Structures are given as structure tokens and as C-alpha cells.
């Protein structure tokens, strides 16, 4: 065990702080996910603010406790807002999370994601293909398709740690990397893959947890644990994606210390 290892007690403490402090998260997210992300933050114990225009992005980042930049449906205006908000968050010492949706597959958004790394995100939260695409973009690669497994992205994730504090690669078992440390979170429900915006919600919740945690690593691990446990709770009541979407929001609200103690699978 090294100094950056994360314990179940760390996760429980972060969850308690999230509920106590109700952090305000500025979400520059994609149009498909806006309502779901806002509701997920509210259910988990945080507060959303969907401020994504260039005129207000930087100023609000200074007010917010954390910032999410999600590149799912980027427009020129939202990209400019993302540059401004991430720079302002860094200058103000606020955590910000980059979700580089589609990195490696589409050249323009990949270049945008690479440029945003200059503002050093607290966490890059992505699937394995996006992690590999983002790392490959810096070396001129075209990226990979969406079939990549988390184990395939280990080297790519570690290569990004000179540009971000933490890289979180989501998959059947989530891998969360920091300098000198790798934490794995198992569990969760396969139904997460059948409902849009659950990954976007995870990015927003990661930002929220980072704002109340002593390190970005603990924040990222706690967020992934919260989502995994919430999805398991939701899957107890349904096996269909439509009802799972609502049950997942209820699950985010239902997660408590007892559920974390029982269901978190930490390695």
C-alpha cells in the first residue's frame, strides 16, 4: 500500500462530505445529457448549474465548487466556454473534470480535448477507447474503436498523468490511475450501458466528489463507487433500461454508508 491508496473509509468520508456540503458543479455537457446529469447530481447530493455560454463560463467557474467539461456534442461556442471555464477553474484552484467523448474517433473534438489538457484537469474520465484515443492523438494516432477493454488502456492512461492528476477509465471494472497508484472499482450493473448519459453523470459526480475530497484520486474513486453501488441498487428492482433510468436516480439518492460498506468492491 502506498500513500495514495484509497480505503473504504475514505469513500465513506467523501460521501458524508458530499451530502453535508452540497457542492455546486458547473456542467458544460452535451445536449443529450443535460437533464439526466442535473437530476443525477441532485439525487446524489450535489447541485448542478448548466452554465455553458462564453459570456458567463469563466465567471461562473470562479463561483462553482467544481467544473465538468463534456465534449459529447461540441459546438464552437461551447468549446470556447470550455476553454474559458477550465482555465478559470485552474486559476481559482477549483477541480475540473474532462470527459473527452469520442476522442480519437473524430479529429476536431480530439484536438479540442488535447488543447484542454493545457489547463490540467483534475480528472480525465473516459472509456478505454477514449483514453487511448486521447493519448494517441498526442502522438499522431487516429485512436481506436469502441471495443477496447480497460486493460488495453493502462499504458495510455499512465502516459496522460503528466497532463492530469488522475485518469479514470470506465469498464466492467473501472481503473483509476494516479502517479504511483492504481485503484480498481468492480460491481455495478450492465444496464448502465443501455441508458444514455450515465457516463456523463459519472463525470459530473466525479467533479462534485473532487471538490469535497482531500485528493482527486479519492474523489474519483468515491464517485465511481457511488455510481456502481447505485446501479446495483437500481438493478434489484428492474431488468429493463427504461425503468432502470429512473431507478438509477433513486439509487443515487439511496446510497448511504451502509450500502457503501456492503457493496463497494475496491481493489
What can be said about this structure in brief?
By secondary structure, the protein is of the alpha/beta class.
Write the layout of secondary structure elements.
Elements: H1 8-21, E1 24-28, H2 34-44, E2 47-49, H3 57-63, E3 66-70, H4 76-92, E4 96-99, H5 107-116, E5 123-127, H6 128-138, H7 154-159, E6 166-170, E7 174-178, E8 181-185, H8 198-212, H9 216-235, H10 241-254, H11 257-263
Parallel strand pairs: 1-2, 1-3, 3-4, 4-5, 5-6
Antiparallel strand pairs: 6-7, 7-8
Helix pairs in contact: 1-9, 2-8, 2-10, 3-4, 5-6, 8-9, 9-10
Descriptive notes:
This protein is α/β, with parallel strands linked by helices. It has one domain (8-266): UDP-N-acetylmuramoyl-L-alanine:D-glutamate ligase. Helix content is 49%, strand content 14%. It is built from eleven helices and eight strands. The chain has helices at 8-21, 34-44, 57-63, 76-92, 107-116, 128-138, 154-159, 198-212, 216-235, 241-254, 257-263; strands at 24-28, 47-49, 66-70, 96-99, 123-127, 166-170, 174-178, 181-185. It has an eight-stranded mixed beta sheet, sandwiched between helices. It starts with 7 loop residues before the first helix and ends with a helix.
